[in-house]
Write a structure and sequence with these properties.
Number of helices: 2
Oligomer: single chain
Number of strands: 19
Distance between the termini: 75 Å
Radius of gyration: 32 Å
Order of helices and strands: HEEEEEEEHEEEEEEEEEEEE
Strand content: over 45%
Shape: globular
Largest sheet: 14 strands, antiparallel, barrel
Helix content: under 10%
Length: 360
């Protein structure tokens, strides 16, 4: 009886789990594939757009606040003739210079087919420990009033498709030897702009070329520019460049710890109005400087990052122009218009520390 029972169990199990013979077509209904003729992906007809980022690019700073400090340096001034007064050449010195730098660059529109950002910047420079300035009008206004920059900016990133894009940027800056309680008139604002056309070849590289109207060299100029954001295949090294304004090599130790080495060309044209008692009117200081630097950036809490810079500040331009008719003029690289007062600013070390709120 036990043997008969075991044989029955084995037989029933074989019937329940045996594979159905594919040749028995009379017991299986053939599937009608014609029902899938019109099947398509829902987004196949949608246009695709590239993004403004590449792998491991340093995070965009939305809000920043920091302090910039420069070591001691000398100022050598040339002859200045203004109306019926003449200032002879002279050498002055300062123990240092520095002040706050703050700003924001906030997304206003962020869509797949366009990104628009708007923001402001503020930079205050105080010159301390002046020596041997005498009646030199430039050294006097630097010592007494310092220099201030306040400005507004806007950037538009417009992808044309999944590879090509356009970038447009504009700035309006109010620069001068003023403090916050005596801001100069808006008529002295200076305007900069840039436009680039580029290609994003893959998620590790984007490159663009364009033209810029800039005051970074101290005075108005029109120069070709090149953008390159590139990350090596090993994801440890990269390049972030908007030449000739700045360029740097990036070393990524982790997504939240970055080291950079490179340079930046900074500058603008500063209206000088606060030395009218010395007869100084209708002048602008053409200030431009090269900063060779190391930068360490890391996240200290979620999207709050610390940035520390250290390097050498080299004087590119620190000359004075006069505007007899109170109108701007273009000299460029090849103009022969003489400066009203040529100066030389000694190089020095500098440091800059800031806290930044970055984009996710």
């Amino acid at each position: 009886m036990k043997l008969l029972l075991n044989l029955c169990i084995i037989f029933c199990a074989k019937v329940c789990f045996a594979q159905i013979d594919s040749l028995q077509t009379d017991t299986i209904k053939e599937e009608d594939f014609s029902m899938y003729e019109n099947f398509d992906f829902a987004d196949e007809g949608a246009k695709r757009f590239c993004t403004p980022k590449v792998f491991d690019l340093s995070p965009a700073k939305l809000i920043w606040f920091g302090y910039d400090h420069q070591g001691g340096f000398d100022l050598s001034s040339d002859t200045l003739i203004d109306s019926d007064r003449t200032w002879s050449p002279g050498n002055s010195s300062f123990k240092g210079a520095g002040g706050i730098r703050a700003g924001a660059n906030i997304p206003i529109v962020s869509r797949t087919n366009i990104v628009v950002q708007g923001g402001f910047n503020l930079w205050r420079i105080n010159y301390s420990g002046a020596k041997n300035i005498g009646v030199n009008p430039l050294a006097n206004t630097l010592s007494q009033n310092g220099l201030t920059t306040m400005g507004l900016m806007a950037t538009v990133f417009k992808p044309l498709n999944d590879r090509r894009f356009i970038i447009a940027q504009g700035n309006a800056d109010l620069n001068g030897d003023y403090q916050f309680n005596n801001i100069i008139p808006l008529q002295y604002a200076r305007y900069s702009a840039a436009a680039l056309y580029g290609i994003k070849t893959n998620d590790r590289k984007m490159i663009a070329f364009g033209i810029s109207r800039t005051y970074r060299v101290g005075e108005i100029n029109y120069i070709p520019i090149m953008l390159l954001n590139w990350t090596h295949i090993n994801r440890k090294w990269g390049v972030e460049m908007l030449a000739p304004a700045r360029a740097q090599i990036r070393r990524s130790f982790s997504p939240r710890k970055l080291l950079f080495f490179g340079y930046e060309l900074e500058g603008n044209s500063y209206r000088i109005l606060n030395n009218t008692e010395l007869g100084l009117r209708h002048y602008e200081l053409r200030r431009g400087e090269l900063r060779f630097r190391f930068i360490w950036e890391q996240s200290i809490y979620k999207f709050i990052w610390l940035s520390v810079q250290a390097g050498y500040r080299y004087d590119y331009a620190f000359d004075v122009d006069q505007f007899p008719n109170d109108k701007e003029f273009f000299r460029g690289f090849f103009g022969n218009q003489p400066y009203k007062m040529e100066n030389a600013l000694g190089g020095t070390w500098y440091s800059f520390v800031s806290l930044n709120l970055v984009s996710p």
